[in-house]
C-alpha cells in the first residue's frame, strides 16, 4: 500500500530542507536537462537560495508548500498569486509516488481560491510529460535558459 502524501504550508524553519530538496532534485532528477554541466547546475541551483526562499515565505503573494511522506519532507512547491507556478521539486527517491501530483493540486487549489483561472509554468524537458499528464499544454515555443525550457499553461473550465 502506497504511503499517504501530506501537504502543508512551509515555514521559515523549513528553509534549509526546502533548499536541499530543490538542489537534490535539480542535480539528480534534472540531469538530462543540465547534462551535469557544473555551470548550468550551479546557475539553476542558485535560483533557489536560502535568501530567495526566505523572501518568498515572508511575502503573502507567494505560497510555498512542503510534501511529506511518512512525516519526512520529500517535495516542495511554490505559486505566485498571479497564476505562476514557479517550483515543483521532488526528492528523486520519491518520484512516481504521487508527491508531484499532490504538490500541484495544492498549488492549483491555492490559486483557485484567489480567483486565478489560468495557471502558467516553465517546465524542463524532463518534467514536461508530468505536467502534460496533469492537463498542461504548451503556451509558446520552447526557449533556452541554460537548458531548454517549455512554457506551459492550464485553464480552468468555465463554470456553466
UniProtKB/TrEMBL annotation:
Q: GO molecular-function annotation terms?
A: acyltransferase activity, transferring groups other than amino-acyl groups
Per UniProt, the keywords (alphabetical) are: Acyltransferase, Transferase
SUPFAM superfamilies on file? Acyl-CoA N-acyltransferases (Nat) (SSF55729)
Domain N-acetyltransferase, first and last residues per copy: 5-157
Q: Name one Pfam family in it.
A: Acetyltransf_10
Q: Please tell me whether the keyword Protein biosynthesis is annotated for this protein.
A: no
> Gene3D superfamilies this protein is in?
3.40.630.30
Residues making up the signal peptide according to the UniProt record: none
Can you name this protein?
A: GNAT family N-acetyltransferase
Q: Which organism is it from?
A: Pseudomonas hamedanensis
Amino acid at each position: 500500500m502506497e504511503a499517504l502524501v501530506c501537504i502543508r504550508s512551509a515555514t521559515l524553519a523549513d528553509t534549509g530542507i526546502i533548499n536541499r530538496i530543490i538542489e537534490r532534485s535539480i542535480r539528480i532528477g534534472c540531469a538530462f536537462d543540465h547534462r551535469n554541466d557544473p555551470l548550468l547546475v550551479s546557475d539553476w541551483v542558485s535560483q533557489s537560495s536560502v535568501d530567495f526562499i526566505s523572501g518568498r515565505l515572508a511575502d503573502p503573494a507567494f505560497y510555498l508548500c512542503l510534501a511529506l511522506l511518512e512525516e519526512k519532507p520529500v517535495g516542495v512547491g511554490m505559486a505566485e498569486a498571479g497564476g505562476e507556478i514557479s517550483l515543483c521539486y521532488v526528492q528523486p527517491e520519491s518520484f512516481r509516488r504521487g508527491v508531484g501530483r499532490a504538490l500541484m493540486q495544492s498549488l492549483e487549489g491555492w490559486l483557485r481560491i484567489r480567483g486565478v483561472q489560468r495557471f502558467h509554468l516553465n517546465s524542463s524537458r524532463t518534467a514536461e510529460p508530468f505536467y502534460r499528464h496533469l492537463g498542461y499544454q504548451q503556451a509558446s515555443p520552447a526557449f533556452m535558459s541554460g537548458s531548454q525550457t517549455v512554457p506551459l499553461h492550464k485553464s480552468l473550465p468555465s463554470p456553466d
